[in-house]
Write a structure and sequence with these properties.
With 481 residues, the protein is mostly helical. Strands 1-2-3 form a three-stranded antiparallel β-sheet. The relative contact order is 0.11.
Length: 481
């Protein structure tokens, strides 16, 4: 295997790992240690320049794409820290905007700082009337997440003058987005049910305003339940940030091109929309409904282990956590408190408890380190508050916006602005000369284009497994967990 004639690697000082290539060349890789935790990182930034090689890591299972001081996760130990503070402690003692301040600034605020921050955020909660007008264009059956992608992206039109290199502009964008996402989210919900918008009140807290804008009726006074406020406050804190997940990485990579921050957050919302990311708690509710009752849990578990088609265990396992998700412990306790206070007996909670009990005692799941994650109980709690499943991911996006803007601001302010440009391993055809093929040679002579369109023909062939893959290389399987 040839690697050209790269510049020979120099022996660095400190801890190193040595990579030996097939041609006998050795490359010394610096080891980097984070400020907290036992992880080690191989610094491969000069790998291609020194050796001519790239690394192959689909899904970035082993790749650190940036440095950050915002959130720390220890997956094997089940630890999640916001700026050094355990997330469960913040849920118990802090309010949502206090934690938002912490993530943005790096330290908890004193009373005067918190008052000033809350006042500024409240001052931005009203949205531009041009943005409000957009909602009249959406049909009643529009998914709230589709609306959110559109209206948050449209904020780029209203605030197009923002300069991401200007510190004052960055702070303004952060506070505006934190303030306006709950307003936009509630407008999306009320649009989907055909009701007029309710505007926030200055006298209400961040969580109280969200519930007020969601559920208030113009014909009568709305009383906010203290337990509902606690539930929303806790939900928001638990979902504010979670290191470099799919949507946060999307925001960072969009921001790396110096795009408008509102467009970057819209990109994050689009990424979060997927069922493998933000839509997981909705999938848990569907699973629990499908099981039906606690006595049917053993049969469901047996079907999961037998890998019966269409049967999946949702709300268990995590890409990072190989232990009980600390956020799930908080949510498990909270959902019981909410149901008790609202005098709701939800049969799904009984099913969820039984399923957790059976799974955590079964070696099949224990060996695979499948523990409940934050999505497992959150859907039951949101349902109890009257929030429909179509709004679950919107709730996630509203909360995660705090982390997204904190990560975006950190990337720009800490001198990390380098455009994201992953590489690929090409496995397609080698260079070939242009030559138009006959229908017989192309394998399409039996296709009836009078009955099926071009895309329908290919979809049928792809679905039947008869469409030949364009991949010229078969990759070996690798265990990544």
């Amino acid at each position: 295997m040839g690697f050209g004639k790269p510049e020979p690697s120099q022996e660095p000082s400190g801890e190193v790992a040595t990579l030996k290539l097939p041609d006998g060349q050795e490359h010394h890789i610096k080891l980097l240690r984070p400020s907290h935790g036992d992880d080690l990182f191989l610094d491969i930034r000069d790998l291609h320049a020194r050796t001519g090689c790239f690394v192959f890591d689909p899904g970035y299972t082993c790749t650190g794409s940036c440095v950050s001081a915002i959130t720390y996760i220890d997956g094997p130990k089940g630890v999640c820290l916001y700026r050094g503070y355990p997330v469960q402690d913040l849920c118990e003692h802090a309010q949502a905007l206090e934690v938002a301040y912490l993530l943005l600034v790096g330290e908890l605020p004193d009373d005067e700082q918190l008052y000033a921050f809350e006042r500024e955020v409240k001052g931005h909660t009203l949205v531009h009337e041009k943005v409000t007008g957009l909602y009249s264009s959406f049909t009643l059956n529009s998914h709230p997440m589709a609306i959110m992608v559109a209206v948050v992206g449209a904020l780029s039109c209203i605030y197009s003058e923002l300069d991401c290199h200007n510190s004052a502009h960055r702070w303004l964008a952060c506070t505006r987005l934190i303030a306006q996402l709950p307003t936009l989210a509630c407008m999306a919900y009320r649009t989907s049910i055909g009701q007029r918008f309710i505007y926030p009140k200055a006298a209400l807290s961040f969580a109280e305003n969200f519930l007020y804008m969601m559920f208030a009726n113009p014909m009568e006074e709305y009383e906010v339940s203290p337990v509902a406020v606690k539930a929303i406050n806790t939900f928001m804190i638990l979902h504010m940030d979670h290191e470099q997940n799919a949507s946060t990485s999307t925001v960072r990579i969009a921001g790396s091109s110096q795009a408008n921050p509102y467009a970057c957050i819209a990109a994050g919302i689009a990424s979060l929309w997927g069922p493998a990311h933000g839509g997981a708690n909705e999938a848990v509710i569907s699973m629990l409904r499908e099981i039906g009752s606690a006595d049917k849990v053993p049969q469901f578990v047996a079907s999961v282990k037998a890998k019966v088609a269409g049967v999946r265990l949702m709300g268990f396992g995590h890409r990072v956590y190989k232990n009980y998700d600390p956020r799930a412990r908080v949510m498990k306790s909270l959902v019981q408190e909410v149901l008790n206070d609202l005098h709701i007996k939800d049969p799904l909670l009984e099913v969820a408890h039984r399923l957790e009990e059976v799974a955590l005692e079964d070696p099949y799941f224990v060996q695979r380190k499948l523990y409940p994650n934050v999505d497992y109980y959150s859907g039951i709690m949101l349902q109890a508050l009257g929030i429909p499943t179509s709004m679950f991911t919107v709730m996630f996006a509203m909360s995660r916006t705090v982390g997204w803007v904190a990560q975006w601001k950190e990337m720009l302010a800490e001198g990390q602005l380098r455009i994201g440009r992953p590489r690929q391993m090409y496995v397609g055809a080698k260079r070939r000369e242009y030559k138009r093929l006959s229908a017989a040679a192309a394998g399409t002579s039996t296709w009836d284009f009078s009955k099926f369109s071009f895309s329908q023909q290919f979809a049928r062939k792809e679905g039947s497994g008869t469409l030949r893959s364009s991949f010229q290389v078969t990759l070996p399987t690798t265990v990544t967990r």
